[in-house]
Amino acid sequence: MSLELVDVTWMAGYRKIIHDVSLKVRPGEFLGLIGPNGSGKTSLMSILAGVRRPLRGKALMGGMEMHKMGRRKLAQNIGFVEQQADTTDRLTVREAVSLGRIPYLSLLSPWSSRDDEQVARALLDVDMADMAGRYWQTLSGGEKQRVHIARALAQEPKFLLLDEPTNHLDVRHQLGLLELVRALKVTAVAALHDLNHAALFCDRIAVMSEGQLVAVGTPAEILTPALLQDVFGVTAVVEQDMQGKCHIRYAVSEKQMPGA
Ligand SMILES: Nc1ncnc2c1ncn2[C@@H]1O[C@H](COP(=O)(O)OP(=O)(O)OP(=O)(O)O)[C@@H](O)[C@H]1O
User: Fold this and answer.
1) Which of 64, 144, 152, 178 would suit a FRET pair with 164, their CA atoms being 20 to 30 Å apart?
2) pLDDT value at 87 more than 80
């Protein structure tokens, strides 16, 4: 099953935020979405997740328009981890992750041991099993982020959409999370600010600039010094290692060096 945007335009008030974007997420791939602040990554992710409806164009899951599908069907297929999602509810970590099972529950299909197993597995996946009894409000920013991801994993999604998932995470958990996403049997899309992470973990990278999709391709195709200069306004050297993985070294002017 694929996730696809066809000529999508989205406006906030009178301002066009997303301009005629067409993008097909390939089954099984890990697609990175990169672009400067305000380029439209979050807006595009929420359209891909079916949370926002395009003003023009189509957002399709398995060839069907998402706004015509029920919330339950969307939630059984798409796990979406938004930026800065918070709650004031008095929930434990386990209860927060259990919310991911709601799309599967009904009067005829009440909570079962299978739901317990999915919640336990999701907590293990994000390294939060030993904090399952802790209250949400007592968690650090990084721990909350890992719980959000566990909640999305508990949905057993076919598509995992992550908006800047490594925010708040220390370097071990950043790498652990991206390794986990790669290892999962899901199609994943993540908005990422760290371009070296995108280069290391993503199969393809899509680049947003001023609301437009300006490039899509493999990390080696996309992460060129010319694109980094054009889109991000930075000077960088891009090296490839023996495995063909790109590594970006940014050039910092003398004035910005410590002690200058
Ligand atoms: N509901 C809204 N109303 C008005 N403007 C909006 C709305 N949502 C987004 N925008 C504007 O649209 C532009 C794109 O925002 P978006 O959050 O999609 O960018 P982004 O690439 O995710 O940015 P960042 O990297 O800073 O998170 C920004 O200029 C933002 O201010």
Assistant:
1) 64
2) no
CA 65 / ligand 1 centre spacing (Å) = 24
pLDDT in tens, 117-140: 999 999 999 889 999 999 999 998
pLDDT in tens, 41-51: 999 999 999 99
What's the topology of domain 3-219?
Rossmann fold (3.40.50)
Cβ(52) – ligand 1 distance below 6 Å: no
Q: Write down the residue that tokens 């280069």 correspond to.
A: 199
Is the CB of residue 46 below 6 angstroms from any atom belonging to ligand 1? no
**How far, in Å, CA of 22 to CA of 4, rounded?**
7
- Rounded to an integer, the average pLDDT of 212-231 is 97
Q: Kindly tell me the burial class for residue 130, based on how many C-beta atoms sit within 10 Å of its own C-beta (0-12, 13-18, 19 or more).
A: exposed
Q: Is 181 in the pocket of ligand 1 (CB under 6 A)?
A: no
Shortest-distance Cα residue to atom 26 of ligand 1:
37
Domain range annotation of the chain:
3-219
Confidence (pTM): 0.92
Copy the structure tokens of residue 160.
Answer: 């995992």
Scanning the structure block, which residue is given the tokens 């981890």? 81
Q: Which residues contact 70 (CB under 8 A, 6 or more apart)?
A: none
